Amino acid sequence: MLSKTLVLPFARPPQALARDMLSQLALPALAKLLARARREEHHEIETFDACLPHERWLCGHQTDNSPPIAHALMDALGLPLQSGSWFVLQPVHLHIARDHLVLTDYRRLFIDNDEAQSLFEAIRPLFNEQSLEIVYGNAQYWFVRADAWSALRTCTPDTGCGHNIDVWQPSGHTSRDWRRLHNEVQMVWHQHPLNLARESRGDLRVNALWMWGMSSSAVFDRGTRLLAESLAHTQPDALTETDWQLIDTLTPLALAEDWSAWLAQMQQLEAEQFAPSLAQLSTGALHELRLVLSDGQRLDVWSARRTGMRKFWLPPSLSRLAS
């Protein structure tokens, strides 16, 4: 049986705006798929959860911590896998609000490889002094081995984006050691010529690191690999009889609350994903389509089968996106 799973983070509109937003969408294929699909799973996370619903679902993650993705992400970037407890390190920008610091979406940093390597080399000695191995992946993702910090609770950057970092920064009995090192990193970067140049041309300063995703094993499942490949922007493996795709184009729009762009992207997904998938179900080229649709706190898994498409008495509707 040929089946396909589409994972679409933030394909659910925010509850407060759902009715108005859905009225502006013309998605006949998705409306038909949802009306005739069966809901297989429903999940809701806590307000201050360490990861987003799709991150938790993909990685089969059960604890209140960020998913263990470091090794999978290193693998997706072509780095050799090593033993030990490894964290993901991301250069980020913290915005100074009235009385707290706010994490900015790392996608808005627009840092190139030369800039990233310059900042990486500037702080490498700080980690070496603490006998911490630090590895460069690409402009967005670096890695640090910190076995003594393996019990830290960390949060994914998309979870903390736009919020006061006090709730989301690493916590636990060794967090003071991390904060001390992080303060030193921030001092080195504060007057770094690269940051001064970025500020002079109106770009965001790179003024902090976000640490998350600790893993201690090079063994990871399909969902974790899929999430890592999406973050690394690498091509997934060739299509198999059970094909999974993670399409993360809606996340930065939702995090920025750019709902007009969100609506436009949903229309694009209708043309590129929903309509072709419905056609495949109708012709028998596809026997099952699973839609994994989430927002910041809820996730639903819908199963649309070829036989279900014959239920002509069920009118197409997008109402399930708001339920």
What does this structure look like?
This protein is 37% helix and 19% strand. The protein contains twelve helices and eleven strands. It has a five-stranded mixed beta sheet with strand order 2-11-10-1-9, sandwiched between helices. The protein has a four-stranded antiparallel beta sheet with strand order 6-7-3-8, sandwiched between helices. Strand 10 and strand 11 form a beta hairpin. The longest helix is centred in the C-terminal third of the chain and has 25 residues. The radius of gyration is 21 Å and the shape is elongated. The two termini are 30 Å apart. The model has no long low-confidence stretch (mean pLDDT 94).
What labels would you give this structure?
single chain; 323 residues; alpha+beta; five-stranded mixed β-sheet; four-stranded antiparallel β-sheet; 12 helices; 11 strands; 19% strand; elongated
Layout of secondary structure:
Elements: E1 3-8, H1 18-23, H2 28-35, E2 38-44, H3 53-59, H4 70-76, E3 86-92, E4 94-96, E5 101-103, H5 113-129, E6 133-136, E7 142-145, H6 157-160, H7 165-168, H8 175-190, H9 193-200, E8 208-215, H10 222-232, E9 242-246, H11 251-255, H12 259-283, E10 288-294, E11 298-305
Helix pairs in contact: 2-12, 3-10, 4-10, 5-8
Sketch the topology as an H/E string, one letter per element.
Answer: EHHEHHEEEHEEHHHHEHEHHEE
Q: Could you give the count of β-strands?
A: 11
User: Beta-strand level of the residues, as a percent range?
Assistant: 15-25%
The helical percent reads 25-40%
Largest sheet: 5 strands, mixed
The global form is: elongated
Q: If strands are numbered along the chain, what order do they take across the biggest sheet? A: 2-11-10-1-9
Number of helices: 12
**Distance between the first and last residues' Cα:** 30 Å
Question: What's the gyration radius in Å?
Answer: 21 Å
Structural class: alpha+beta
Which whole number gives the mean pLDDT?
94
Low-confidence stretches: none
